[in-house]
Structure formats: structure tokens, C-alpha cells
Amino acid sequence: MAAKKPKFYVVWKGRKPGVYESWDEAKAQTDGFDGPLFKSFDSKSAALNAYKDKPHQHIGQGPKPAGKQGKLPGLVGDPNEDSLVVDAAWNTATGDMEYQGIYLATRQRLFLMGPYRDGTNNIGEFLAIVHALALLHQKNSNIPVYSDSRTAIGWVQKKKANTKLEETGRNAELFDLIERAETWLKTHRFANPVLKWETTVWGENPADFGRK
């Protein structure tokens, strides 16, 4: 397995703006800070040069999907603080997957599930969204749910996890959870908006596991 390339992080607006060589350092400057502005770069030189510029010259300027118009920071607005944000982590070496959800306003973790063997990141994101919806349904809450996976959001909308992952003896528990999640979506009504976390504008998903 190839070594993971290092990332460098520019914090334009945070507790202590600057260039950082690890996500943990950058996160300490931005996590819980009101309106942070930050972005990752593939090289230290690119990060140092970007730090000299205005943040709007770089935030939201990543590659855009073909045939789709990218969103500009000024048109996205701010995320709703009264919301639940989910994310998944998939270990490329072991195939293990886990997911979690936090309440955005306080950064309080509301659930952490896994690890599950032989999963995928999209499956984790899908299960995390449904877990969040079920939890909020129990609390009679219609607050939004954010995920940074367009694929998982699409699966939730279709009430079907369209995964190509093959079921094995190792991941049988995971496929049972997928079936239960699909059944829940088909048998429950919910008014919670399921929204895309706009990473290029708002920064890293707050529910991220911090293993960049």
C-alpha cells in the first residue's frame, strides 16, 4: 500500500491563522471557532503561497464535476448550527468502517458506531444519515442532517443503498444494517432536510474522524 501523501493546511481565519502541517493542528485553530476559513493543500509551497492571498481566491475553487456549475461561497450561505452532521471513516488497509454523528452547535457526539468489517465509505455515510434520521424521529425533531457524501444522500432519497459491495461472511452484520436502514426509510415519514455539507466553502466536516 502506497504511503499517504502529506497535506498542509492554511487557516486564514481561526484562533491562530497560519500554515499547519497536520490536520490536528489546524483543527485546534478552527474547531468551534465562529466562521473559520481554511483549506488543505498538497504541498507546503502551495499552502504558503495561498496564505498570502485572500481566502476567497482559494476557498470554493477546487475542481468542479463535469457539466455542473460549482457553487460560489457567497451563494452557499452558512450551515444551520441547529443540525446534526454525520461522517464515516473507512480504513483502506483493513476494510473496517465506522461512522458518527454530532450536534453542530455544541460539537457534542450523539452516536458512534462500528467498526464494521469489510465496508465502504458510502455505506457508512448512508447508515449514518439513516441513524441520524431515526434518532431525530424519536426526539420529534425536524432539524437538518448534513453529510458530505452526495452518493449517500442520493441513496437515502431513493430509499435504497445501491452498493456494488459483495456480501461475505465477514460483512453479514453490515448487510443486515443496510436492510434495516432501507426498511426504516420505506416505513417512516420524516421532514428533516438531508443536505450536502459544502466542504470547499465551510471547511472540513465537523464529524470528520480527523485521519486526513
TrEMBL record:
Cofactors demanded by this protein: Mg(2+); Mn(2+)
EC number: 3.1.26.4
Binding site for Mg(2+) 1: 87, 208
Cofactor note: Binds 2 metal ions per subunit. Manganese or magnesium.
InterPro entries recorded: Ribosomal_bL9/RNase_H1_N (IPR009027), RNase_H1_N (IPR011320), RNase_H1_N_sf (IPR037056), RNase_H_bac (IPR017290), RNaseH-like_sf (IPR012337), RNaseH_domain (IPR002156), RNaseH_sf (IPR036397)
Low complexity composition bias: residue spans: 60-75
Keywords: Cytoplasm, Endonuclease, Hydrolase, Magnesium, Manganese, Metal-binding, Nuclease
Broad class of enzyme this protein falls into: hydrolase
Main location: cytoplasm
GO molecular function terms listed in the Swiss-Prot or TrEMBL record: metal ion binding; nucleic acid binding; RNA-DNA hybrid ribonuclease activity
Pfam families membership: Cauli_VI, RNase_H
Subcellular location: Cytoplasm
Reaction catalyzed: Endonucleolytic cleavage to 5'-phosphomonoester
Domain RNase H type-1 as annotated: residue spans: 78-212
Magnesium keyword on record: yes
GO cellular component, one term: cytoplasm
Signal peptide interval: none
Binding site for Mg(2+) 2: 125, 148
Function: Endonuclease that specifically degrades the RNA of RNA-DNA hybrids.
Family the UniProt entry places it in: Belongs to the RNase H family.
The protein's name: Ribonuclease H
Native source organism of the sequence: Spirosoma rhododendri
